[in-house]
């Protein structure tokens, strides 16, 4: 693959009622949470991950990016429930991500590969059709951070994320450097929080209790359009 986010890859604010900036008390960026609700009490301490390598040229024995994801999550105290390798084919990628996202023993899915701009890079197209919610901030932050390392070449990366069947799904480029950046700087710091939020209503229904989605942080629960490819 020729993922253009190639780091050497072969395939490509508590505001007052109105502060000096004119923000109101209910500004969506006010994460001081004065409503008395703890929006982190749903955070998952241990997360079970499904790792998917998208490549038609590699094997699980020759997959440094997939290996890094496994070691990074396990070292952080999480577990890898399943690891698979699929070819650069739309149906294979979509079917695998959909199946893993629906498994009861998998809390999140991370893919590596297929996010570039060559004809066989189809991961974003395959998974976006599954998203019930998109997480545009993931791709935005990933490209901002990668710009610090590779400059303007980051525009060729289409790293993306969203929620499939109450399961967060993150799609990273295929290079090991890109996987390190995405996993260490973005996914690992937020995975427990996102898993807790994404599965919140499901847990409440299974437990017979009422969902407290009405108390959710607007910044957390916001469903926004896909970022431009």
UniProtKB/TrEMBL annotation:
**From its record, what is one biological process in GO terms?**
Mo-molybdopterin cofactor biosynthetic process
Q: Where are the transmembrane segments?
A: none
Keywords of the record, alphabetical order, are: Molybdenum cofactor biosynthesis
Q: Which InterPro entries match?
A: MoaB (IPR012245), MoaB/Mog-like_dom_sf (IPR036425), MoaB/Mog_dom (IPR001453), MoCF_biosynth_CS (IPR008284)
Q: Which protein family is it in?
A: Belongs to the MoaB/Mog family.
Check the record and name the PANTHER family matching this protein.
MOLYBDENUM COFACTOR BIOSYNTHESIS PROTEIN B
Q: What is this protein called?
A: Molybdenum cofactor biosynthesis protein
What is the species listed in this Swiss-Prot or TrEMBL entry?
Answer: Halorubrum salipaludis
